[in-house]
Amino acid sequence: MDILGRVLLVLHLVGWAIVLGGALVSLRPPRIPTGMLHGALTALVTGLTLGVLLSTGTLDWGAVEPAKLAVKFTVALAVTGLVVWGGRRTTVSRALVLAIAGLTLTNVAVAVLWQ
């Protein structure tokens, strides 16, 4: 089961990298490429799966902080919602793309810095 957990973690990180990279390269002109949606959904689904596996004790990677998982899930939902909303628009503002990038970095920071 540990190998499955590590594969899910890699896919989770790749999903966030796609969202962040897509946001940074789409600042000029501001747009929401389809790849950002795929990355956000990948990160959201793999993150939920990892959270369930950690919470149930299937993965033994140490203590699980429920508040941390809740914050990460909330931010992931916000990012995914903004990507879906922006992807349906013909034009988007630079502020929206920057908000997606900022929330993505926030989610990564929570994962790394919250001990």
Q: What Rg do the Cα atoms give?
A: 15 Å
* Total separate domains: 1
If helices are DSSP runs of H or I spanning 4 or more residues, what is the number of helices?
4
State which percent range the strand residues make up. under 5%
Q: What is the CA–CA distance across the termini?
A: 24 Å
Report the count of strand segments: 0
**Biggest sheet details:** none
Oligomer: single chain
Helical coverage, percent range: over 70%
Could you walk me through the main structural features you see in this protein, from its secondary elements to its overall organization?
The chain has helices at 2-25, 34-55, 66-87, 94-113. The chain is mainly alpha-helical and 115 residues long. The longest helix has 24 residues, at 2-25. 26% of the residues are buried. The model has no long low-confidence stretch (mean pLDDT 95).
